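Recall the central idea of this unit: under ordinary conditions, the amino acid sequence of a chain determines the structure it adopts. In this exercise we apply that idea directly, starting from the sequence alone.
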Amino acid sequence: MISPGYSDCINMVQVSVIIINFNSSRFTAAYIKSFKEHTASDLTYKIIVVDNSSKIEDYEQLVQSCANIAGVRVIRSIVNLGFSGGNMLGLQAATGEYLYFINNDCEVLNDNLSILYQFMQTNPHEGICTGQMHDGDLNLHPAFGYFPTLSLRLFGSDLLWLFPYPEKFTDKEKVYQQPVAVPLVTGAAMFIDREKFAAISGFDTNYFLYCEEEDVCLRMRKKQYEVYLVPAARFIHYMGKSTTRNFPIELENYISLLYYHRKFHSYPAYLGLKLLYFFKNIRKVCRHRLYGKLAFYILLGAPQKYSLKHKQKLRFV
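Accordingly, the structure predicted from this sequence is:
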């Protein structure tokens, strides 16, 4: 389903911005407003909003808020496809040289899009970049992270600095003024070269929620495409505002993590990580019995058959 008022005459753009909405249209409307206010008029772009089978009231509110905004297209999925699937649906309507996947609970603080665009234009070997992230109180927050390896889980990044590969652990506490190579960027805002994204076949839709950025950035790096933080591009991420934490969501985190480890790590490393996650949760059983339930599913390997992906209902309206 496509919202009215969209013109296909804007197909020739430089960047396609893809946003997922799920029962959070007020965040989506606020992001689009901040984006429109800060983005330079000489950069051509379109905004594709994927409604991930929200309640009809939220969807109608979304369509109403976007109806009179030029260059915004709303696509409604009749089933919640999750983060990867929703973005891949939006990708089908995307054009231009670059893609900007950004959470709807974000807000740009400057001409974020133009800064990232210019960086990628002058650095053709880069695959993905992101800007400097702030929390809702405008405090700096790391916009990049480290790959979840067994050595990292056992020893932490501080100790691993002693080994011969410190470049894998760019300092998250440092305030950067210039672009810097990082292991992986936040999934909240990923500016990606479209051709390079095609070269790695896009998002792996086996992930419903979590670990998408680790997966994409690792596959980019395996293709020798660099991943960068561009601190001049600033944005707010109101973290967790669009997702409620509960047992199914916590389980989904481990389903994604263990799938990622099975996909990229050796079996001994996978087994070691699974046991670490198990003991991490079993130690917390005294706080709440649900940690014991999580530990049980982890011991099973957190099979994907328990994913929220398989529990979605169709919405035909």
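The CA atoms of residues 132 and 231 lie 5 Å apart.
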